[in-house]
Design brief:
The protein is mainly alpha-helical. The chain contains 9 helices and no strands.
Length: 191
Amino acid sequence: LNKNNLDYRTAFGLALGRAQETERAVEVLQSVVSSPGYKGTDAWINLGYVLRVMGRGPEAVDAYQKAVTLDAKSAPAAYGLALALVQAKRWDDAVPALRRATELDPNVKADALVRIARCLIEKVKETKSKDVAAAEAAYNDAVAVAGADNETLVAIKQNIDAIKKFGAAGTGGGPEPEIIDVSRWARCVMN
């Protein structure tokens, strides 16, 4: 590789990542972002993507955050950051990041709204709260754009209904609701 051609190395790193040569991809992309004077966002975005694919959410968050810092209006950086925050289960950070991504790129709106609903139901589940109002509002927003037949939204609706039923039964007075793991439907769609 021509070490002076950062654009080529950035694209090559992404190609390696997509070919599932992720360790090598990280090595190539890290060499680009650590090049003296590198101020671009593409290598940071690609590094975030590869790290996210590897399941290294917190590191992916750092890479995407660097890209967002360099270009606050970069839709791929904003959406990648949001997806990495979801992967890292940082629900409170992921929701505004997903909303910001939809402002920058309306084409991700349906997917982002589904992920917002998922984040909010996951937060309810983790905190063992019975307050599903925000999750239900996000669910309704997502249905309006993505349709009620979306598999993730079906699972979210089942969770909302189960939590509402359990909450109505009072604490200790009924069986735990059957909570469906919606994460199995969450797919990373960032290209």
